[in-house]
TrEMBL record, chain A:
Keyword Oxidoreductase listed: no
InterPro entries: NADH_DH_suC, NADH_quin_OxRdtase_su_C/D-like, NADH_UbQ_OxRdtase_30kDa_su
Organism: Granulicella aggregans
Keywords, ordered alphabetically: Transport
Lineage of the species this protein comes from: Bacteria, Pseudomonadati, Acidobacteriota, Terriglobia, Terriglobales
Domain NADH:ubiquinone oxidoreductase 30kDa subunit: 44-162
Pfam family name, one: Complex1_30kDa
Keyword field contains Transport: yes
Protein family (similarity comment): Belongs to the complex I 30 kDa subunit family.
Name of the protein in question: NADH-quinone oxidoreductase subunit C
GO MF terms held by the record: NADH dehydrogenase (ubiquinone) activity; oxidoreductase activity, acting on NAD(P)H
Domain of life: Bacteria
TrEMBL record, chain B:
Highest classification ranks of the organism: Bacteria, Pseudomonadati, Acidobacteriota, Terriglobia, Terriglobales
EC numbers for this chain: 7.1.1.-
Keywords in alphabetical order: Cell membrane, Membrane, NAD, Quinone, Translocase, Transport, Ubiquinone
Annotated Gene3D superfamilies: Cytochrome-c3 Hydrogenase, chain B (1.10.645.10)
Chemical reaction(s) catalysed: a quinone + NADH + 5 H(+)(in) = a quinol + NAD(+) + 4 H(+)(out)
NADH-quinone oxidoreductase subunit D domain ranges (all copies): 153-423
Protein's name in the database: NADH-quinone oxidoreductase subunit D
């Protein structure tokens, strides 16, 4: 069974445990928090630094953007967590970059200049969570109809919809 | 048509279909160096036999060549991710079948592995082998549907009937183990739901022994066929750089020359115990994807045979009475088991807080489940990374500058399932 004590939290602790890891090295200057839990790396970066962080891990060999999604932690703040899952074909390893956004200013730079594949993912997050991606060329709804009101995957949106 | 009149027509059309402007904006944002003077916009789908579901394409054509293409999706959106948040962990398994209805076992497996990673559960070897066996059978089944429909789109109708004949045998096997032909929900968190009937292994072996000769039969019908070659060779080229940049995975990625397969490179569910090749090609066209998938079916047969050969004995579920439903007999005779049963069914089981991402190689490419737990019995967030969703983004790159008729061929080659795109 999972042992919570196996979790390594904080960037300093992760650096100490895995000093040779390529992603840890690449993000030393950018990560504000990190954890190594269940054999997965998670690095939190400030939202101003997301493009820089994406370029840094790309240069370190993490060449494939696998997934971008969001988690809504309503009612706690910062409300939105954007999770980027990035895979390295060479190192055969996956890392997670996390950006946290407050509910009243849910806005982050699009990483479309680094990985064009984030196009649909960012549109999906915009559609279902209402998070804006600055610099996205075509930020319109993708799943829901254009005239839909609200963002269904937000936690304050009822499961059965508004009646 | 004069350009002015055409502009008027587009305006009228756009007024009636408010969505089209956004979709076209997407198409134009990517197209460079084309003028609107000689182009025409046509609508393909959502009800079109070769879009494999309800995919709507807005295609901008200049004569017969495609200058811009945008996909409009969401017609099948049912909010599965939202529904998952309202269910217990074990109740999500049947929902995952509905995402990709051609490879339900892959979805079951990916979700179960993700939750097992959250829980830190060890799965018995027998269950792992059975999971691999049924996953590879699912891959063959899914590729058979792909081959049949792809060939039908191109005009080779016979292959479709042969493919569905073999698929029927597989669906009967699935029915025998799970009670369902398509929405199997066969895997459970912690193992698999039922021990397969013992005489079924004979049927599976019989199927596996004959399958390579059937694949030869399909290849006899298609590989040397001049129409098939003409419609596939050199069509829909995708460079390895574009494939990686656009998030393409699975057979289309390997057909573009990137040798990456999660089963071999980041093994899960005991795949490291199996010996198989990962077919690749460097051509990057529709033909290369056809070749890669045909070889993949042969490799899957090999993996299934190894799974049958080496199938260990033992339990099919992990030893975790608070997570896995007890045996029916035990439940009727032992108080302890009855309590566990009652608690699991009425209030689920708590999962330690945290987040995991589990990726597997589904028939269409890399599938991933991102599960976030807040410590309760219901998942806080479930997100599915579906291969078709990302691969669809590469459609424009593959079609641009080519003939309109090739669009059908390219859609067939990326093997999309709209259920998993829209979720």
């Amino acid at each position: 069974m999972y042992d919570p004590a196996s979790k390594i939290a904080g960037f300093a602790a992760v650096l100490e445990a895995q000093p040779e890891n390529a992603s840890v090295k690449a993000l030393t200057a950018l990560a504000v928090d990190a954890k190594f839990d269940r054999n997965e790396f998670t690095f939190t970066v400030n939202r101003e630094n997301i493009i820089e962080a994406a370029n840094a891990v790309k240069a370190a060999g993490y060449n494939f953007l696998e997934d971008v999604t969001a988690v809504d932690w309503y009612p706690s703040e910062p409300r939105f967590q954007i999770s980027y899952h990035i895979l390295s074909h060479k190192l055969k390893e996956r890392i997670r970059l996390v950006v946290r956004l407050s509910g009243d200013d849910a806005n982050v730079d699009s990483i479309i200049s680094v990985w064009p594949s984030c196009n649909f993912y960012e549109r999906e997050i915009f559609d279902l969570f209402g998070v804006h991606f600055a610099g996205h060329p075509n930020l319109v709804r993708i799943m829901m109809p254009e005239d839909w009101e609200g963002h269904p995957l937000r936690k304050d949106y009822p499961v059965e919809g508004y009646r | 048509m004069a350009p002015v009149a055409e502009e008027e027509a587009i305006k009228r059309y756009s007024a009636q279909n408010p969505g089209v402007n956004d979709v076209l904006a997407d198409a134009r944002a990517h197209s460079t160096g084309t003028t609107k003077d000689h182009t025409m916009v046509i609508n393909m789908g959502p009800q079109h036999p070769s879009t494999h579901g309800v995919l709507r394409l807005v295609v901008e054509i200049d004569g017969e060549s495609v200058v811009g293409l945008a996909s409009d999706i969401g017609y099948l959106h049912t909010g599965i991710e939202k529904t998952c948040e309202a269910k217990f962990y074990q109740q999500v398994v049947p929902l995952t079948d509905r995402i990709d209805y051609l490879s339900p076992m892959s979805n079951n497996l990916c979700y179960c592995l993700a939750v097992e990673k959250l829980l830190g559960l060890e799965i018995p070897e027998r269950a792992q082998y059975l999971r691999v066996l049924f996953n590879e059978l699912t891959r063959i089944q899914s590729h058979l549907v792909w081959l049949g429909t792809h060939a039908m789109d191109i005009g080779a109708l016979t292959v479709f009937l042969y493919c569905f004949r073999e698929r029927e045998a597989l669906l009967r096997i699935f029915e025998a183990v799970a009670g369902q032909r398509m929405m199997t929900s066969y895997f459970r968190i912690g193992g698999i739901s039922l021990e397969p009937p013992t005489d079924l292994y004979k049927d599976i072996r019989k199927f596996l022994d004959t399958m390579p000769s059937y694949i030869d039969q399909y290849e006899n019908l298609l590989t040397g066929n001049p129409i098939w070659i003409g419609r596939l060779k050199g069509v829909g080229y995708l460079s390895p750089e574009d494939a990686i940049a656009l998030g393409v995975t699975g057979p289309p990625l390997r057909a573009s020359g990137v040798d990456f397969d999660l089963r071999r490179d980041m093994p899960y569910s005991g795949y490291d115990k199996f010996k198989f090749n990962v077919p690749t090609s460097t051509d990057g066209d529709v033909w290369a994807r056809y070749e890669v998938r045909m070889l993949e079916m042969r490799e899957s047969v090999k993996i299934c045979l190894q799974a049958l050969e080496g199938l260990p004995s033992g339990r099919i579920v992990a030893d975790a009475p608070k997570i896995i439903l007890p045996d029916r007999e035990q439940m009727k005779t032992q108080m302890e088991s009855l309590i566990h049963h009652f608690k699991i069914v009425t209030e689920g089981f708590g999962v330690p807080a945290g987040e995991v991402y589990q990726g597997i190689e589904s028939p269409r490419g890399q599938m991933g489940y991102y599960v976030v737990s807040d410590g309760t019995a219901k998942p806080y967030r479930v997100h599915m990374r579906n291969p078709s969703y990302a691969t669809l983004q590469a459609l424009e790159t593959m079609c641009k500058g080519k003939l309109l008729a090739d669009v059908v061929s390219v859609i067939g080659s990326i093997d999309i399932v709209l259920g998993e795109i829209d979720r």
